[in-house]
Amino acid sequence: MTGRLDGKVAFITGAARGQGRAHALAMAREGADIVAVDICADMASNPYPLATPDDLGETERAVKELGRRVYARVADVRERPALREALESALADFGRLDIVVANAGILPMAMGSPDPQHFVDATDVDLVGVLNTVAVSLPHLADGSSIVITGSTAGMMPGNADSPEMGPGGAGYAWSKKTLMEYAEQMAIHLAPRFIRVNVMHPTNVNTHLLHNDGIYGVFRPDLVAEGKKPTREDADLAFTFFQAMPIPYVEPEDIANLAVPERAGTVRVRDIRDLTSDPAAYAAELQRRWGGLLSYRYIGRHHASMNVGPVDDTVTVRHDMRDVTGGILLSVFGIAAPEGGLVSDLEAVPNPVVHSCQVLDAGVDVKRFEVRTEDVKRGQRMSYSRSLIVDADQPGRVLAITEGQGVTIGIPPEGLQKMTVEPLEVVDSPDLPPLWQVFGGRQVDATTWTLPELSAEVASPDAALHVGPQFVMTETAARGSVTELARTGALVGVSSHTMFVARAKSGPFTFAAEPIAGADARFGARTCVYDEGADGKLVTVATHVFRCAE
To answer: Which of 27, 164, 409, 437 could form a disulfide with 32 if both were Cys (CB 3.0 to 4.6 A apart)?
Structure first.
C-alpha cells in the first residue's frame, strides 16, 4: 500500500526542529519527498535560541530514515531571492511541488526592554516570511495542490500575545497571525479555479522551543517575576491550561502536523461529466477544462481531428523522450498516438478503450515523424472497434507498428457540443527532457513497482478516471524496469503490448506492479497489474509487454 502523499513533494519552512520537523516527518511517512529550509541562526530580538544547522541535519537524517528524499537548505524566509533559489535548486531535482507549509515563525518578547524593532522582526518573519514562501512556491504548484499556513490562537484571542507584557514583539506576532487569516482567505479565492487549497491552522500552546523558554515562563507567571523569582517550566505548566478549553498545558507538534495531512491530500475534485448532462453549459465547461488537461495527447503532440478544432494532422514528431535507450520508439507513444477506442470521440460520448494491442514491426530508430492511419472496423450501440497502421511519415511505405482496439460508450452527452480549441504544448526537443514517467508524476518504488499519485485534472479522462495515456506510459515503465532487472540490461527493444482496461481508475494513488518472465531467443515479457489504492487496492488494468534484447 502506498501513502496518502505518495509521489508528492512538500516545501516546509522552519523545518529544523519543533513543529516544522514534525510536519516534515508526518508527510515523509505518508510518502512525500521534503524540501526543508530554516534560518539556522539566532536573531538579536528573539530571546530564546533558534534552530541550528545540526537541528536541520537531524531533520534531514530522520526523513532519509523514512525512505524519502530530502533537500535541506539554510535560508531566511525574510529574503525572497534566497528562498526562491533554495526551492528552485530542490525542484531541479524533484521536478514538482504539491504542498507548501509556511511554518517559520518567531516570538520576540520584550523581556523588560520593549523595542519597536521587535515588532518589525516579528512581522518580517511571521507575516512577510509567509508571503515570500507562497510567492516563490506559486509558479511551481500543480492544480490540486495545498498551501498550509501556521497561524495561532494568538491572532484570535485579544489580549493574549499582544498584551503589554509581551511588548512590541508580541504585538507583531499577534497582528501577523491575525492578518494571515485575511491573506489566506483572499488567496483561497484566487486559487480556487486551480483547486489549490489555502488554509491557516491555529494551534494553541505547542510543546516547542517557542513555548518553552524563560521569557514565556515569565509572561505566564508574572506573579513569580514580581516576587523576584525565575519561573520554571513546572511553574508555567499550571498557567498554560488557562489559554485553551482542553485540560492540558499544551499539545504536541505531531498533533498539529497530523492535521496538515488531509485524508485525500492534493486531490483535485475531478467531476464525472456524465453528472452534468442535464446542464449543457456546465457540461461543455467541464469538458473544455478536462480536454485541455489531457496531458498525454498534448505532450506528445498528437492532434486528434475528431476532438479538436484546427487543421487535421495525424503525425507525431518524435523527440528524445519518446525513445528507449536503443533509440526505438516507445510502445506507450504508439499507444497514446493510436488509442483505438473505435473512433468514438468525446463529442459523441465518453469512450473507454477496453482492450488495446500494439505490435511493432520496425522500432523506427531513424524515424523523425510517424503518421497514424486509423480504420473504423465496426461501431455498434455500445461497442466500437478500430485499428491503425503507424508508418514513417516521410516514407509512408515503411510500416512501424500495427494497433487494434475496442472501446465502449458509457454516456450520452447533451446536444450542442462543439469541437474544442486546445492550444498545443510547445515541447522543445532536447536530450535533457525528463522521461515520460516523470512528466506524469510517476515514482519508482523498487525494480518491479512504480506509482502514480492521486487523480488530477491533468491525467483524468472526461469521466473522471485515470486516462489511458499515463497508464500506457507507466505500465511500460514498470515492465521495462522489471525486465531490466531480470535480463541484466536496459538495452530492450519493444516488440508488443497488450492492455486490458478492467475497471475505471477513479481515486489513486495507483500502483503498477510488474512480473518479469524470461523467454527464448533473448526475449522477455512482463505482466503488469495496476491497482487503485484509494479504492481499497482494486485491480483496474492488466498489461503485457514483450521486449527483445538489442543486438
So the answer is: 27
